[in-house]
Write a structure and sequence with these properties.
The complex is a heterodimer.
Chain A lengths: L1 H33 L17 H15 L4 H12 L14 H24 L1
Helix pairs in contact in A: 1-2
Chain B lengths: L1 H25 L18 E4 L5 E3 H6 L3 E7 L4 H14 L4 E8 L3 H11 L5 E5 L3 H6 L6 E6 L4 E6 L4 H11 L1
Parallel strand pairs in B: 3-4, 4-5
Antiparallel strand pairs in B: 1-2, 1-5, 3-6, 6-7
Helix pairs in contact in B: 3-6
The chains are: A mainly alpha, B alpha/beta.
């Protein structure tokens, strides 16, 4: 009886571990596909879109994760295929330098103004 | 004096924003990728439509001077309009035409081929669209012209036109 219990517990753990692993994988697929732009219905993410392109893309991501590729590797692969436009999170480069720096500059100028007002008046 | 500077600042800010938005109005917002030149086409393995036999794209491309890879599907309407052009291209002996059957049912694709003719030297299937994504394609129809080193010479998104036909003929002859 004890043995049967033991086996039962082991089977239970194996199955739940597998389920948990699978759940983790699909969470990662969701996370990656939310950060990808669907190139057919632009403005929608691959996660939201039901176009053939997006459905295939999700399958490909799933396959790549199964093969053991990391999130970064998958992004790099897709950027290489479709260009940087496919990811929603743009990289820091010359073209968008102003966009990235502008809030920071504004923040510093504002800070200086407040500093002057407080300490020199 | 101070007031003037403030007015000037506000005015120039609005002017700046106006110019940015005005330029943005004329900018086309729909993204199409830059022409990919001298980029290598990914190697893929596909099953043949009729026999289900596996074929490696690399072996086919290596053994032919030029290979045209055409993504098509029986449910795709623009594919019908480009079909006569593919038929025309298939007569050229310098060109090997691979048809990549995108997300299609076997019966329907065979029906399509029987109805309109078979321009393809070989038809490989892509039942879930993964091969197409790995090639960097968007959907159907899409066409790649590659040389025997797997380098992409031309990529056509959407149906082929008569102008594309002339261009391809100029390249391969």
């Amino acid at each position: 009886m004890k043995k049967i219990k033991f086996i039962f517990i082991i089977i239970f753990f194996v199955f739940s571990a597998q389920k948990l692993l699978l759940a983790n994988n699909s969470l990662l697929v969701d996370k990656i596909s939310k950060n990808l732009r669907c190139l057919i219905c632009q403005g929608q993410s691959v996660y939201d879109s039901q176009s053939d392109f997006a459905l295939s893309m999700k399958l490909l991501i799933k396959k790549k994760i199964k093969e053991g590729e990391s999130e970064e590797q998958i992004y790099d692969y897709l950027k290489n295929q479709y260009g940087e436009w496919i990811v929603y999170d743009p990289e820091f480069d010359k073209k968008n330098l102003v966009l990235w720096m502008f809030p920071l500059i504004l923040f510093i100028i504002g800070g200086l103004l407040i500093y002057r007002k407080v300490f020199f008046n | 004096m101070k007031k003037k500077i403030v007015y000037f600042c506000i005015f120039s800010l609005f002017f700046f924003i106006f110019v940015i938005f005005y330029l943005g109005l004329n900018k086309q917002n729909y993204y199409t990728p830059n022409e990919i030149k001298n980029k290598k086409l990914a190697i893929f393995i596909g099953n043949e439509l009729y026999s289900n036999e596996e074929f490696n794209s690399d072996e086919i491309i290596k053994n032919n001077k030029f290979t045209l890879i055409n993504l098509w599907s029986s449910w795709c309407v623009p594919c019908r309009s480009e079909h006569p052009i593919l038929m025309n291209l298939s007569e050229n002996t310098n060109l090997y035409v691979i048809g990549l059957n995108y997300k299609d049912k076997k019966n329907n694709s065979i029906k399509f081929i029987n109805q309109f003719g078979n321009p393809f030297s070989i038809i490989l299937t892509d039942p879930n669209g993964i091969i197409s994504i790995s090639l960097g394609a968007y959907g159907v129809p899409e066409t790649f012209l590659v040389n025997n080193k797997s380098e992409i010479i031309k990529k056509y998104i959407g149906p082929l036109t008569n102008r594309n036909l002339l261009e391809i003929n100029n390249i391969i002859n």
